[in-house]
Amino acid sequence: MNARLVVLVSGEGTNLQTIIRACSQGELEAQVVAVVSNRVAAKGLSRADKADIPTELVVPSGEERDVYDTNLARVVARYQPDLVVLAGWMRILSNSFLSQFRVINLHPAMPGQFPGTRAIERAFAAWQAGEIEQSGVMVHWVPDEGIDDGPVIVHSSVPFHSGDTVATFESRVHAVEHQLVVKGIALAWQETQARHEMSGRASP
Description:
It contains six helices and seven strands. It has a seven-stranded mixed beta sheet. The chain has helices spanning 14-24, 43-50, 65-77, 95-98, 119-128, 166-202; strands at 3-9, 30-37, 55-57, 83-86, 103-107, 134-141, 152-159. The chain has a single domain (3-111, 137-157, 181-202), classed as Formyl transferase, N-terminal domain (Rossmann fold, 3-Layer(aba) Sandwich), CATH 3.40.50. The chain is globular and about 50 Å long. α1 packs across α6.
């Protein structure tokens, strides 16, 4: 059984492209059934269009966060996803959304390090200050409104190299992201299926 994925994006959508490719090549037992963005200019929308994947635009208009998230959840629910994948989604989701779906997030840092925005730049600055020797990437569950602190599904380190610039380090981080997002989705789907099987056995 293939997982039904709804991917939420706010920007370039390079990780989305990786997910689409992995699905089409059979690397993932999954199908991207919709791509949703909160930004009109998100290039991820055009990537989805080229792959004939339905897109939805849910742009904030000054409403309360819970109201926005309830509307977003209504849109996403139409596609009946098994997993919602945050791949460069630049909004913190409230429980109005998270309580309705199994959600995973890709974050360019190691567990417990550099939560929130600009994680790559902050890690690079910490390395320059002699505070760390490596950073990394993780895929984690998003069970609540905590910022990049949900249960980790998979993670991988990304070392710094002598002579690194932000650009060279960022390119290596993105390369690891492309590998890890596919692995993370596969592991999340395995866990989800296992939960379904266990709940099925527990039913009278």
